[in-house]
């Protein structure tokens, strides 16, 4: 059974965490044992050279023993690290500030080792706190103790020199060991990261290939739908050519125009690189020009389409296309008589509210002189169709008429429908007219 990328990442992250925890548990044991041995050895040497140093190093030995007991009974390596690191910083701080007879060369090495242990065990936040504490200790040492310490320090004898050499060697070795552990963790994490990246590249390649295949398939579907709609248009035109009644021919042409508005959407989707978007201004301009060309008019009508909206959702585009088709068809039939010298159709699309781009405002007008609406205009098929299409998009339609033009204003929702389109409950009124 194939697992997903998220599941693979979870497994890899779990592997890293398990490896990291096992490493820290083993490191806690090794550090506890190493520190107990090292500082037992140093305390024996300092038993003859410095009672103060002996007591300090003995406290570190006790901390290491407590750490081993914690590991044995609870496996709590974090608290073990914290115990060793905290005691190490406190012991070094007391030695720096109160022991005036020591050279203090090794304390700085042990401070560094203690901070590294806390960082490794408890993370950055607690590590920064302890680093700040260490910085305070060093500042206090330089400010209040260093000059007095320089004045009081005595030349080292051979045994003290030997102890110092051993202590410095152990301090350097201990820090190098910690750095080596950190390097191993980083190397393991990098190998896992490389593994994840390789899996990502492989899966992205597969996804891109699948997306390419799906895109070709969907485009082919759009192409076939467009061809099928074109066949329906051709059949309607053939049938229309055999009719004698002009009103019936007009009804056929209006049906053809409605189908063309939908076929044009599928054509644009087939031609576009992005299947989810169609440039609205281009679509609306081409739709109006197609309707005008099919009307075989005696005079040229100039369409002007201006859109502030780049794209409109596919769910909204079909109803809007049918609305534009209905408006254009009725402008051709009812608006332009012999008195109109330069007929124009104007369509503008903008956001109804700039703060909420889910609503669009569609304004359609022409410079023709429309016939007066009769008393039954509310029952006419064209108006009822547009009102119903606007309602499907949770919108509204209003009509404004003055001496210069008749304007149809639509406020429509421009987002994916959350409900299915309801059926058109329209009466049969014959040919479309207002």
Q: Can you offer a commentary on this structure?
A:
- By secondary structure, the protein is α+β, with helices and mostly antiparallel strands.
- It has 2 domains: 5-204, no CATH class; 278-413, 2-Layer Sandwich (Heat Shock Protein 90), CATH 3.30.565.10.
- The protein is built from 10 helices and 5 strands.
- A 5-stranded mixed sheet has the order 1-2-3-5-4, with helices on one face.
- The chain is rod-shaped.
- Mean pLDDT is 76; it is low at 373-379 and 417-434.
- What is the chain-wise order of helices and strands? HHHHHHHHEHEEHEE
Strand content: 5-15%
Q: Give the termini distance in whole angstroms.
A: 63 Å
> Considering DSSP H and I runs of 4 or more, what fraction of the residues is helical?
55-70%
Return residue spans where pLDDT drops below 50 for at least 5 consecutive residues.
373-379, 417-434
Main beta sheet = 5 strands, mixed
In DSSP terms, counting alpha (H) and pi (I) runs of 4 or more, how many helices?
Answer: 10
Helix/strand-derived class?
alpha+beta
Give the C-alpha Rg: 43 Å
Strand order of the largest sheet: 1-2-3-5-4
Give the averaged pLDDT, no decimals: 76
Morphology: rod-shaped
- How many E-type strands? 5
The number of domains:
2
């Amino acid at each position: 059974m194939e697992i997903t990328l998220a599941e693979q990442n979870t497994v890899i992250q779990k592997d890293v965490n398990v490896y990291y925890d096992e490493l820290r548990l083993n490191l806690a044991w090794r550090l506890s044992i190493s520190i107990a041995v090292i500082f037992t050895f140093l305390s024996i040497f300092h038993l003859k050279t410095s009672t103060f140093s002996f007591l300090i190093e003995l406290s570190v030995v006790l901390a290491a023993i407590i750490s081993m007991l914690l590991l044995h009974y609870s496996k709590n390596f974090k608290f073990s690290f914290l115990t060793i690191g905290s005691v190490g910083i406190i012991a070094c701080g007391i030695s720096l500030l109160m022991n005036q007879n020591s050279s203090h060369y090794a304390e700085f090495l042990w401070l560094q080792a203690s901070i590294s242990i806390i960082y490794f065990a408890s993370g950055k936040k607690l590590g920064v706190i302890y680093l700040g504490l260490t910085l305070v200790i060093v500042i206090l040492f330089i400010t209040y103790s260093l000059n007095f310490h320089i004045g009081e320090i005595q030349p080292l004898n051979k045994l003290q020199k030997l102890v110092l050499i051993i202590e410095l060697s152990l301090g350097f070795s201990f820090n190098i060991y910690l750095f080596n552990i950190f390097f191993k963790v980083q190397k393991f994490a990098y190998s896992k990261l490389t593994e994840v990246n390789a899996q990502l590249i492989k899966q992205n390649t597969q996804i891109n290939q699948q997306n390419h295949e799906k895109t070709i398939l969907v485009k082919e579907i759009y192409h076939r739908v467009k061809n099928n709609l074109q066949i329906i248009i051709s059949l309607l035109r053939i049938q229309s050519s055999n009719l004698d009644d002009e009103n019936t021919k007009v009804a056929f042409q209006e049906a053809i125009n409605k189908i063309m508005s939908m076929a044009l959407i599928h054509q644009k989707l087939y031609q576009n690189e992005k299947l989810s978007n169609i440039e609205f201004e281009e679509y609306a301009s081409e739709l109006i020009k197609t309707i005008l060309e099919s009307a075989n008019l005696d005079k040229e009508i100039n369409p002007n389409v201006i859109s502030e909206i780049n794209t409109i959702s596919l769910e909204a585009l079909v109803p809007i296309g049918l609305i534009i088709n209905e408006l254009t068809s009725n402008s051709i039939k009812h608006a332009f008589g012999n008195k109109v010298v330069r007929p124009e159709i104007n369509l503008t699309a903008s956001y109804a509210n700039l703060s909420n781009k889910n609503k669009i405002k569609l304004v359609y007008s022409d410079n023709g002189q429309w016939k007066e609406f009769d008393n039954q205009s509310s029952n006419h098929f064209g108006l009822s169709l547009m009102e119903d299409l606007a309602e499907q998009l949770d919108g509204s339609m209003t009509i404004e008429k003055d001496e210069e033009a008749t304007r149809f204003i639509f406020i429509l929702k421009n987002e994916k429908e959350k409900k299915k389109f309801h059926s058109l409950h329209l009466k049969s009124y014959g040919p479309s007219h207002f």
